[in-house]
């Protein structure tokens, strides 16, 4: 049985929730035999997984604190200020149930991209993180659906 862990906030923020929901739904569709867990970035298990990569688990707030940047919500753009990605416009049928969450996460991911891009350089494994069979596959934002499909498809082989 494969083990999939999403390292995130507890309770989950929209980004962590979407990644967990999408991975769960995709695993069902692919009929994968997997154990999927959502764990807190503050847990011992998250610390151990991050340490293997020479990092500490954290959030965009942790990155912002280290680099001395303000991360106040007032600076986040409104949905009307951003153009939508094609994957939001053309969601797969089984993902339509998450459409509003995809929109919210798209805004958050774009707003937090600067922190995601700087996280590893300051020693942070930024949430959300996708770990498959003990290997960190992606972190810092919700990966594109095509990457999730690819990563989970590899488990079918």
Describe the structure.
The structure is a single chain. This protein has helices at 14-29, 44-52, 60-67, 86-89, 99-119, 145-153, and strands at 2-8, 34-40, 56-58, 124-126, 129-132, 135-139. The two termini are 13 Å apart. The protein is α/β, with parallel strands linked by helices and 157 residues long. Residues 120-152 form the Thioredoxin-like fold domain. It comes from Sinanaerobacter chloroacetimidivorans. This is Thioredoxin family protein.
Question: Which terms summarize this structure?
Answer:
globular; Thioredoxin family protein; two-stranded parallel ribbon; alpha/beta; 6 helices; Thioredoxin-like_sf; about 160 residues; about 20% strand; Thioredoxin-like_fold
Explain the layout of strands and helices.
Layout: E1 2-8, H1 14-29, E2 34-40, H2 44-52, E3 56-58, H3 60-67, H4 86-89, H5 99-119, E4 124-126, E5 129-132, E6 135-139, H6 145-153
Parallel strand pairs: 1-2, 3-4
Antiparallel strand pairs: 1-5, 5-6
Q: Tell me the distance between the termini.
A: 13 Å
Continuous helix count: 6
- Summed over residues and divided by their number, the pLDDT gives a mean of 89
Biggest sheet strand line-up: 2-1-5-6
